[in-house]
Amino acid sequence: GLTHKLQETFKKLRGKGKLTEKDVKEAMREVKLALLEADVNYKVVKDFINSVSQRAVGQEVMESLTPGQHVIKIVNEELIMLMGGRESKINISPKPPTVIMLVGLQGAGKTTMAAKLALHLKKSNKSILLVAADVYRPAAIKQLQILGGQIDVPVFTLGDRANPVDIAKAGVENAKKNAKDVVIIDTAGRLHIDQELMEELQNIKSEVEPFETLLVVDAMTGQDAVNVAQSFNEKLDITGVILTKLDGDTRGGAAISVKAVTGKPIKFAGVGEKLSDLEIFYPDRMASRILGMGDILSLIEKAQQTIDEKKALEMQQKLEKHEFTLEDFLDQMSQMKKMGPLKDLIKMIPGLDTSKLDDIDLNENEKEMARIEAIIKSMTKEERKNPSIINSSRKKRIAKGSGTTIQDVNKLLSNFEQARKMMKQFADMQKHMKKGKFKF
Ligand code: GDP
Ligand code: MG
Q: Where in the cell is it found (predicted)?
């Protein structure tokens, strides 16, 4: 794929002590081919290569001690710029409700995205109404109702005999009446762009005047996705793009070209079929993913999302009061488990040669976690609360109960003591830091 090809090129560059203009030209030729093969729009590739080349043959690079690295840095910077520079958040209207209209071809992922967005906004305490305005696709309304049910968000519908424009209008009225913060309108798509569809969408748009008109496109369709984005933008003047199915075997072309071709930012990425599989689109993270530099930031965010914020706060309060017990320790471990297999997380660490991953026995770590869990579960409530009462006869009983040894129990107790000390320091530190929270 693209990442592999770029990494090969970069490897050659890195290996060179000094770069000639010819070296840069050769590297640029390879980058160009790799991008074209990944379905990046031709004109976008041409402009991109021009700006990188111009900078790469400059004095700055030639005289640098690590010219190869320097060129890679330039490619990275230009790629980030191409994708919009920085993330573009969803705009929330100062006059609620914020109307968000989702448009796109059939199968792009609109209905799924409507629910994903609802869940995402719900996390920042927005009250939401979903509106089912696709009256053509069989069971489209039911689909949205089921998804809404899963995340406990109401779905407005007038059935499939009503006119989509009327549904959208009545949906927004309903949201106003019920003081909702956000209305998300799921619309119909067709297999291809056609006049009738565009007219219907234009009519809905002029009737409800959405604050955001977001185009949902399937990233797997590559160059087509970009053409679709261009047409929809011309007809509907969209405010942003959402790329779905970025989890699949996409060649990256759509992610790279959409902003350059339409001038509209990519706001979100769909990365799976589950409703939590939604990511804010960060151009810099996408660039490092494409260049194979790993994605440490996504990793951190994943950790933050998984660890239940309320639990984290409780934990912190306990720590401050020295009440952190083995039971809490167990709780924390199960939170860690929710982050998924260790292997997936490790793959996101930049600079790691993942081909060697299979040699490392990551299962060992998970086995250790299971051992710890068994030991703690073999303790009485009293012991979990106050480990200092665990004398040698208690240790013997716990080891036996958990199928481990006294050494294992000792090791756990001393680890716990250490963790408690460390976390106390951490809690004190956090208390002094202002907590940055997600805001629109
Ligand atoms: P719509 O016709 O535009 O409303 O598309 P749907 O929301 O019905 O989605 C079409 C199919 O794509 C469904 O099977 C979804 O589960 C799937 N889908 C949607 N988004 C994603 C995604 O980000 N990743 C993957 N792998 N599948 C997705
Ligand atoms: Mg749909």
A: Cytoplasm
